[in-house]
Design brief:
Layout: H1 2-18, E1 23-34, E2 37-48, E3 53-59, E4 63-67, E5 71-76, E6 81-86, H2 94-98, E7 101-104, E8 107-112, E9 115-122, E10 125-132, E11 138-148, H3 154-157, E12 166-169
Parallel strand pairs: 6-12
Antiparallel strand pairs: 1-2, 1-11, 2-3, 3-4, 4-5, 5-6, 7-8, 8-9, 9-10, 10-11
Protein name: Outer membrane lipoprotein chaperone LolA
Keywords: Lipoprotein, Signal
InterPro entries: LolA/LolB/LppX, OM_lipoprot_carrier_LolA-like
Length: about 170
């Protein structure tokens, strides 16, 4: 499940760069359907075209996921832990999605490592990303209240790990 999340999270900043956004922020709902189970996540994200991003998950479990060019930092408050992973250990879809092909006026398609991503846009802003991963999970991310090209401060995008949290390096 973590790999699914990381794949998606890496995808959106690259997609934004391909549409020539300097930055994009949005509320999101992510639904993962696996066999007979479904789980939905919601929150807010901030992304810049230099591949720096922050995803704030509000439900069902609060967490923050910070991306920069070298690493991913996941801060899980309920577990009082932070997981730090090198970015080269996860698939980087930034370049693939930057070159996504428009297949309809409001639909783009990107293929990476055998997975097809369908990106819906409205008024030149991404509104939905659909894909099916290698484990046969169907993932749908819906974006709302998008704001493009608004300055996002470095302070917001800098990971904050509270004192006393366990730090796990992967």
């Amino acid at each position: 499940m973590r790999k699914i999340l990381i794949v998606f999270l890496l995808a959106l900043p690259g997609f934004c760069a391909g549409l020539n956004f300097k930055s994009l922020q949005s509320d999101f709902t992510q639904t993962v359907n696996s066999q007979n189970q479904s789980i939905s996540y919601s929150g807010k994200f901030y992304a810049r075209n230099d591949n720096v991003a922050l995803w704030i998950y509000e439900s069902p479990t609060p967490k923050k996921i910070y991306f920069d060019k070298q690493r991913v930092v996941i801060v899980e408050d309920e577990l009082e832990q932070a997981i730090i992973s090198r970015l080269d250990e996860t698939p980087n879809l930034t370049q693939i999605l930057t070159h996504a092909m428009q297949i309809q006026p409001t639909l783009y398609k990107a293929i990476y490592d055998g997975v097809e991503y369908f990106i819906t846009v409205k008024n030149d802003l991404p509104t939905m990303i659909d894909y099916k991963d290698r484990l046969d999970n169907k993932i749908k991310i819906t974006l709302k209240n998008q704001v493009a090209n608004k300055q996002i401060s470095e302070e917001i995008l800098t990971p904050v790990i509270p004192q006393g949290y366990d730090i796990i390096n992967q």
